[in-house]
Design brief:
Elements lengths: L10 E3 L5 H14 L1 E4 L19 E2 L1 E4 L8 H20 L16 E5 L8 E5 L11 E8 L6 E2 L2 E3 L6 E2 L11 E5 L4 E3 L2 E3 L2 E9 L5
Antiparallel strand pairs: 1-11, 2-4, 3-6, 4-5, 5-14, 6-12, 7-11, 7-14, 8-13, 9-10, 9-12
Length: 209
Amino acid sequence: MRTNPYLVLPYVESNMFPPEMCDKIISHGLKHWREHEGKIGDEGDLVNGIYKNIEYRQALCREPGHGHGEGNDFENNFIKTLLDRIFEHNNSEHGYNFDLFGPHEAPMLLEYKNVDGHPGQYKAHLDIGKTFPTSNRKLSYSVHLNYGEYEGGELEFRPWEDWTPLSIEGKLQKGMMVLFPSYLLHRVTPVTKGIRYSLTGWVHGDAFQ
């Protein structure tokens, strides 16, 4: 049986969005998307549920609103571009070849920064949960909207025994997209200076069997 190495390794597209588009996405999200604090856990966990733990995750989340408010056409355009590219990579010879039927959760603008001495971070976690829609997450994506404008805040993976920093041939850069299986253990290291922005979300399919 042929082994697909992409099942355990992230894929990086270095030029998902140009820098000026990244700036517009940040500005749009800060202005128009609804804000909430990042929490951990899962609704299907009857013991712990979803809760806040700033020692484990310190992030502010913003999600698109509903309806046809100001900037909606711009929003739909960059989200469609992102999802089209993800489906293209998933089905290409260098992709994951998962059966996908689309996103059931909107993308989020994530903001990591130091708040009252607590650095923005997200310790080791998986993106898959116990109940729908998290149980049907198959591919996770993260677009680094301002890479190079902060210190720390590195996305790292642990496909084997040790943590592996994100790397590609050439320079990691603003606007790159990281695509990876939602079951892959990953973390965002503490942001020590500045603010880290990313556009993060998931694409869903029938649950893994």
